[in-house]
Amino acid sequence: MTTDLRGALRRRKPEKRLARLAVRALGELTGAADLSGAGPVALVPDTGVYIRNAAGLLPPAVQALLDRARLFHCSVCLAELAIGVANADPSRANWADLRGYYVELFAAVPSTRLLIPDAQIWAEAGVIAGTLARTQTYQKHQLKECPNDALIYLSAAKAGLPVLTANCDDFDLIQQLAPEGRFVHF
After folding, report:
1. Is residue 16 part of a domain?
2. Do the strands 73-74 and 70-71 form a parallel or antiparallel pair, or are they unpaired?
């Protein structure tokens, strides 16, 4: 399989994106509260969801949504979590608990619910990240984070699943360039 950059550029049309994109109002986007009365739901948690869940910082409605959702996991999120564990200070009193929590989380992810971006998704994510970096005049740290968000979003989109995230602004901008995907904010 080859990676089709020409196709990615044709689909995303970065040359036509010259103006800064505007973040849409929250009322125009799907929020976690919009899914409160819905039946079964499948979601891909963004990295921040895992972190807030571990810290007990998820809003009750989001926690209830997670409790009843069928969760799929993106390898990009798992990599970001692994970076956080390895980067945490091992001399801190809670480091062993932190490590243990995430070791158990990783072990509980069924291989049938693990989304792994393929080469085409990597190319598409690069085009999206580059376009946003240029149009939104991203700083260096944003340029490093944007490809991961695009990878998560596009992996979920390929599987036909929405991403659950608190990172509404970035995912909104990504969705404006890749409208085939969905995300749910909180």
Report:
1. no
2. unpaired
Is it the case that residue 40 has pLDDT exceeding 90?
Answer: no
Rounded to an integer, what is the distance from CA 127 to the centroid of its chain? 16
> CA 82 to CA 47: how far, in whole Å?
11
- Average model confidence (pLDDT) for the chain? 96
Question: CA-CA distance, 131 to 76, in Å (whole number)?
Answer: 20
Do residues 141 and 112 make contact, with C-beta atoms less than 8 angstroms apart? no
Q: Encode pLDDT of 89-113 as tens digits.
A: 999 999 999 999 999 999 999 999 9
Please count the other Cβ atoms lying within 10 Å of the Cβ belonging to residue 148.
19
C-alpha closest to that of 115 among 166, 29, 41, 45: 45
The H or E element containing residue 115 is: strand 114-115
> Structural domain of residue 155, as residue ranges?
39-185
Q: How many residues does the chain have?
A: 186
Q: Contact 123/4 with Cβ under 8 angstroms?
A: yes
Q: How much of the chain exceeds pLDDT 70, in percent?
A: 99
The domain tally of the chain equals: 1
Q: Is 181 inside any structural domain?
A: yes
Dihedral of the alpha carbons of 85, 117, 73, 28, in degrees to the nearest 10: 110
**Least confident interval from 36-40, 43-47, 65-69:** 36-40
- Which CATH number covers residue 76? 3.40.50.1010
